[in-house]
Amino acid sequence: YKSIAPNLKKGAALAFAHGFNIHYNQIVPREDVDVIMIAPKGPGHTVRGEYAAAIEHTLAAKERFARLGEAVSEGEALGNLGGLYMSIGDPERALAAMEEARQRTLASPALGTRAASEINLGLVLMLVDRFDDAREALERGLAWAVQAEDRLWQINAQSSLADLAAFQDAFADAAAASNPLVGGVEEGGEVLVRED
């Protein structure tokens, strides 16, 4: 968005394939820009039903792998489950699933699997504003990816770390901008909104 925002004219429209970026405020369009979403085929209740079915099937697979003692496969199922929970807007369950996935995949001899688990955990931690924990998970994921010589997971970890830095900068900027307003309200002062 940052690369196209300067070129958007008043009344322009941004189209999204899904609502993730808007819902989690990863993209905050200007007030004079319209936002539209091109929804998946099918009404909302149908789409939600598909996610519910996917969660049910993924839980069944996780339980099967647990019964068979296949910790790595169970961890991969938990990672998928975490992604499904994020898709339906349930970050608490997503985080629990990703943390459990990480524990299971640490037993994997496949270092790329360990990298994926750490990176996915880092992404969820970032979305629930646990930035320090997110950085640690992403850095662990990058280390596993480097050790595995897995270039795709290295790129994924590096771009996720860059996203995290941008997230933190945006939050720091927002906090700095709002501090004078909060101070004025706490002191009983009048807060004026200036339109530039």
Topology:
Layout: E1 13-16, H1 20-23, E2 34-37, H2 44-67, H3 71-87, H4 91-105, H5 111-127, H6 131-148, H7 151-186
Parallel strand pairs: 1-2
Structure description:
With 196 residues, the chain is mainly alpha-helical. Helices cover 67% and strands 4% of the residues. The protein has seven helices and two strands. It has helices spanning 20-23, 44-67, 71-87, 91-105, 111-127, 131-148, 151-186; strands at residues 13-16, 34-37. The protein has a two-stranded parallel sheet with strand order 1-2. Helix 2 packs antiparallel against helix 3 and helix 5 (111-127) packs antiparallel against helix 6 (131-148). The model is unreliable at 181-196 (pLDDT under 50).
Number of strands: 2
Helix-strand makeup class:
mainly alpha
Low-pLDDT ranges:
181-196
- Rounded to the nearest angstrom, the radius of gyration is 20 Å
Beta content:
under 5%
User: How many helix segments?
Assistant: 7
Helical amount: 55-70%
Mean pLDDT: 82
Run of helices and strands: EHEHHHHHH
| Overall 3D form | globular
Cα distance spanning the termini? 22 Å
Major β-sheet profile: 2 strands, parallel
How would you write the strand order of the largest sheet? 1-2
In short, what is this structure?
The chain has helices at 20-23, 44-67, 71-87, 91-105, 111-127, 131-148, 151-186, and strands at 13-16, 34-37. It is mainly alpha-helical and 196 residues long. Helix 1 (20-23) links the parallel strand 1 (13-16) and strand 2 (34-37).
